[in-house]
Amino acid sequence: MNIKKKLIISNVFMLLVPVMLSGIAALIMFLVFSGVINLNNDLSYYDSDLFWKVAEKTDQTFDNWSKNPDLQAIKVDIDNFNSRNNKKNIYLSLYENSEMIYPSDSAVATQNAPFIPIIIDGEDTHTGVLDEYAFYSKKINNYTAVLVCSQYLDIGSNYMKYKNTFIDFAALLAATVIAIICITNYLLTRSLLKSIVGPLEILNFGVHQIQLGNLDYRIEYDRRDEFSTVCADFNLMAQRLHESVERQEKDARSRKELIAGLSHDLRTPLTSIKAYVEGLVDGIAATPHMQKVYLETIKAKAEDINQIVDKLFLFSKMDIGEFPFYPEKLNIGEELTAFITANAEEYKSKGLILKQMQNLDNTAILIDPVQFRNVLTNITENSVKYKNKECGVMEIACFEKEQNVRITLTDDGPGVPEDSLSKIFNIFSREDPSRNNPNKGSGLGLAITAKVIERSGGHIHAENVPDGGLRIVITMPICKQ
After folding, report:
1. 3-state class of 4 per DSSP?
2. Spatial distance between the Cα atoms of 184 and 178, rounded to a whole number of angstroms
3. How many angstroms separate the CA atoms of 197 and 190, rounded?
4. pLDDT tens for residues 110-160?
5. How many CB atoms lie within 10 A of CB 63?
6. Please, is 352 exposed, middle or buried when counting C-beta atoms within 10 Å of its C-beta (0-12, 13-18, 19+)?
7. Of 420, 407, 394, which is closest to residue 453 (Cα–Cα)?
8. Residue 112: CB partners within 8 Å, gap ≥ 6?
9. Of 1.10.287.130, 1.10.3720.10, 1.10.10.10, 3.40.50.720, which CATH number belongs to 226-317?
10. For the residues of 235-282, what is the DSSP string, one character each?
11. Nearest to 161 by CA among 28, 27, 35, 24
12. Homologous superfamily of 47-153 in CATH?
């Protein structure tokens, strides 16, 4: 349950619970006050009427006695009546003339003594009130039934008693309502705060972990409320921060490798240039022919430096996305055929035979044609540089696979160590064999190739051929527009 719903429910309960509990408490107190619930010896606000209501009901019993004057049955009725009404201080007794014949209770006889002269004056019924006593008598054949209340209160004193009781009940009700409101609000507020403070503490701990550098920390939160989204965003932020730090560290390593590789590749031709210049200055190249050889060597080394700088400039522009790129819909089958036809003789003279093994018809990809030809050239040149045979072979194939075009360029050279396959497309990779032989290039060609393919929405990877050699695999999406 989200916090918004908890707030609404909490507010509703803060209103309903006190009202309901207060209503129940008020009802109970009213029932006690009104005498419905007996907590006051069965006396009620209308005690003065209670005796007369009992007398009215008892009068029906007296009529039954008149019809059936069986003394034993009368005694049983008297016992039953007194057992029901003795808590109300109301007693029933039976007289013959002025003598009480049942029950044989001297206390009751003494209590009734003041009324006996009135009762035996000859009339059938008598009612009266004397001090705190009230009585009712009725002649039944030879007997006289006497009903007496020993704690009869008049209406005025009873009213004052219950007025004070009402004030006490009102004060108790007010205190009960206040207590109910306070307890209800405390419990609901505590529950609501717990659902807020707990997740905040979890988030605070997570932030503290990130602050300490623990970028692998993730919050585990299984509740479904507003904090679940916050925790998910926190985990996403931590993941992106972790990736950003890794990317920065990778970029830092790449910059160090770039500087080291560039220094390595520039040092060799510069050293040669310096040596040949010193030879000219020191007069080692004394003849015009030797001087020409020295100058041509210096020119070649300067061109090597220029090529390195050009490729580095090209790679940097691609890396930051500022190099001009003009993608076109290119028929991949025709383009591969044209490349092999145009370059077969040239590479044959360099000791590499180009073979077309498989091709596609009427299948297009979206790529810059000039850059794609540079991709093919860089891969082919790489095979020429590292072939270990007098005449090597490169097989070029193209086919569809899973809604993509796959282009494979497979040579029969020495291949690459397995742990270096994923790194040969890195700029100035330490695993690149060109690092050990400056005459075989700067190592930037495959890095530029990877950038062109990635920028075109494709993927490139290298794999060793089981029988020996290296296979470069280019995957490009098919262009259907």
Report:
1. helix
2. 10
3. 10
4. 777 787 777 766 678 888 887 778 888 888 888 888 888 877 765 445 545
5. 11
6. buried
7. 407
8. 93, 100, 135, 146, 148
9. 1.10.287.130
10. HHHHHHHHHHHHHHHHHHHHHHHHHHHHHHHHHHHHHHHHHHHHHHHH
11. 35
12. YNR034W-A-like (3.40.1840.10)
The angle that helices 226-282 and 155-211 make with each other, rounded to 10 degrees, is 10
| The pLDDT of residue 455 | 86
Instruction: Report the CATH fold assignment for 324-477.
Output: Heat Shock Protein 90 (3.30.565)
- Residues recorded for the chain: 481
Residue 300 is predicted with a pLDDT of 83
CA 420, 421, 425, 426 torsion: positive or negative?
A: negative
pTM value is 0.46
Q: Which range has the top average pLDDT, 93-97, 127-131, 444-448? A: 93-97
Q: pLDDT (tens digit, 9 = 90+) per residue, 40-65?
A: 444 444 456 677 888 888 888 888 88
pLDDT in tens, 59-77: 888 888 888 888 888 888 8
CA distances from 477 to 310, 366, 425, 440 (A): 30, 8, 21, 33
**Residue listed under structure tokens 């972990």:** 209
pLDDT of residue 481: 63
